[in-house]
Amino acid sequence: MKQVRELAYDVEDCVGLYWLRIRCRLGDGVRGRLKHRLQTYRERRRLAAEISALSISERHARYGVNRDALQHRHLFPSYQSYSLTAAPVAAHAHRHDSHQLVDIKGQADALVELLIKQQLVGEQHVKVFSIVGFGGVGKSTLGEEVCRLLETEFPYRAIVSVSQAFDPTSRDRRSDLMELLKRVFWQVVEMKKLLDGIDDWKYEKLDKELRSYLKDKRYLIMVDDIWTIRAWEAIQSVLCDNNRGSRIIVTTRIEAVAKACSPAIGGHHIHHTQPLEFEDSKKLFLSRTFVNKECPEELEDVMENILKRDEANILALNYNHLPHELKGCMMYFSIFPEDYEVNKDRLLWRWIAEGLVTEKRGLSLMEVAESYLDDLVNRNMIQLREDIEYYWKAQMYRVHDMFLEVMVSKSLESNFASLLGGQYATMSYDRIRRLSIQGDDDRLENAEQPRKNTAASAGVDDGILDLEHVRSLSMFQHTGKKLLDQLGKFRLLRVLDLEGFKGALTKDHMGYICRLYLLSFLSLKGIEVGEVPSEIGKLEHLQTLDVRQTSVRGLPDTVTKLYKLERLQISYNGDANLMWKLPLELKKMKMLREVGFSVLGNHLQVAQDVGELDHLQEMVVYVDDITFDDNVLTEFANSLSKLYSLRRLIIRDVGYGKTLNFLDQLPSPPQLLRHLMIAGGIDRLPSWIMSLTYLVQFNMSWGKVAGDQLFDVLCELPSLETVCIHNYCYEGNVLVARTRHRFPELITLRIASGSKLPNVIRFENGTMPKLENLLVNFTDNDEKKIIGIRHLTNLKEVQLWGNESNLALHRALKHLKSENKRRLFESSSQFQIVVKYE
Fold first, then answer.
1. Which residue in 84, 251, 598, 783 has its CB near the most CB atoms, within 10 A?
2. SS3 for 304?
3. Which BP terms in the Gene Ontology apply to this protein (predicted)?
4. Rounded Cα gap, residues 520 and 411, in angstroms
5. Class for domain 324-401, per CATH?
């Protein structure tokens, strides 16, 4: 596989070199093309020779690497070298005493208690308890232990395994179901004579006989290792609900499957298993290996290596079970340092730029990439954490430290990525494809020295980096300035991500970057750079340009030549008058999907061009309230109505007038809007907001909405989950969520600090039935009150923000504690109170 991947990389390099050296530019004409052919004669001959050299028969010589150096067994053992088939045998050998396993007993007792508790409250319908976690963490052992503990409660029990091969969609789909039914039948039937001739039964008879046998019996069936929702639906259809308090235990690696088996409503339950902690693994190993459960001192190091190896084997096994298209995406996490959290958009656009996302009919590459990410999350292989980033939830992803070690090992073995600095400072590489700088490394000081790429030097660590074939460069440390001085030599670079560099870029550096003609992804986020040169327009393959958190205050007009640009991110630097103004000829940027902070200039043509951006999904735009022509605003409103793909819109004004009242002129809103923020002069909410059936979050600030209008417009939206109210957005002293304000799906309500906000927030009976999170800021307000908290029956958490000396905050805190006591006395659900002092 490594040789094939290297061959594919070399083919891509040849194509890239063709683009750089030989391809005629559009508009050259016949004479220009003839002249170009003469000028590039030598280059074409050289490229032809390089292509001829890509002979598969010579691949061992061409792609040989120093495997010992790559593996560095004391740091990264070759996990594939260990036997992964012995584990199931060992598991079966000790299955008879699984109740003695470390850490299993506590989890099993908790699940048993939950099962029994539901029976005691008279819940008789079949309930499904899902145990989810990646392979090897003990899901099956835990489920079997629960079944063992419930022997007396459920005399009719069965344990059946499904596995990944179970396919209910195949032509002979019933054959899989029949085998499963037979296995259940054999275990639950006491008189085996009833099963005479079962092998000759047809599906209908088998199904009928099992239902008849179980109809008056309380059963417990464990279905082990379900991989798909379709498999569960097929199995569920043959397991009857006999209203006898029966239970089904399901084990799966896939989060989505667990949610399908055990929905949030109806008393079902999902249990997430975790790998044993190192100390628990050590106890288990000692109990199995030594009679006295103590390890001789001279074998301590050996034992620790074995324990680490076994944990790595489990993780490697889960990686090996991934579909081919997910393996590269999973291995991509090896580029990021330990404990590093990467933003969702950054990760997905990098995947796309690297060619790790394959096209699927009817889906954009971003939609396919999102499906990959969801799959990895569902398999519990990566961890998701949500953060607040400019009022919105930002999704951050990371992998467990041990899993990262496995991915790094596999990445180095297959030459997927090359890591420099820190613990990787002694690693040697031959042909570098993806370079990740994670710390100081002496070789970065020698980056400007050429390396002789000869057979004799292949795989030899001579202190000089071979950068000719680098296609991706990521920097996570301040070091590596000399490497940036050589950016002009990275001819084949597709991805340049300097977000973690925290250094400065000179004009020379920017000049080098603008000559990287194959660049698809460019992130300068957080870098000290003040200007983007006009030569940026030459990067015709660029898809992502991110200059947030820099001193860049605008972009050259040549940015409109970036016809493939899909994501353009630029920061708000405190002065909207110095921000990037949407340029003339904006309509040429047809592929744009995301546009960061921008200003709509007072130009009619630009306002019209916005409506030509058919793919636009996210937009942050400022509108000037001083120099604006009403015709421009009217045309801009018409353009917004044409953005059928728009998912997120943040619209603000520069001054303090009522400029945003023009929003009421939209002929029809973008119906797919999910996030909307209106921040600026407006004294009435546009009525079209009530038609946004997909709107999930609404933010508002600096408006002057009065009375019930705010909640009247929002309260019937069927998908609205979050409402955030910020400063200067409400005219009035009391904000009332009335009984008629249903908010059928609202989960979070946030009342921020600032002037022109209500002093009293009152909730009437029946409002916001699903509200879980209430956040209220008391900063600089000693009069604020919360009334009617008792009517929020689904409340899970209340957050209070403000100064520690704020009297209103302390009164509210006392009131909330009193309400919790009342709920405790009435046996209703309490809520958590969180106080954050500023």
1. 251
2. helix
3. defense response to bacterium; innate immune response-activating signaling pathway; plant-type hypersensitive response
4. 22
5. mainly alpha
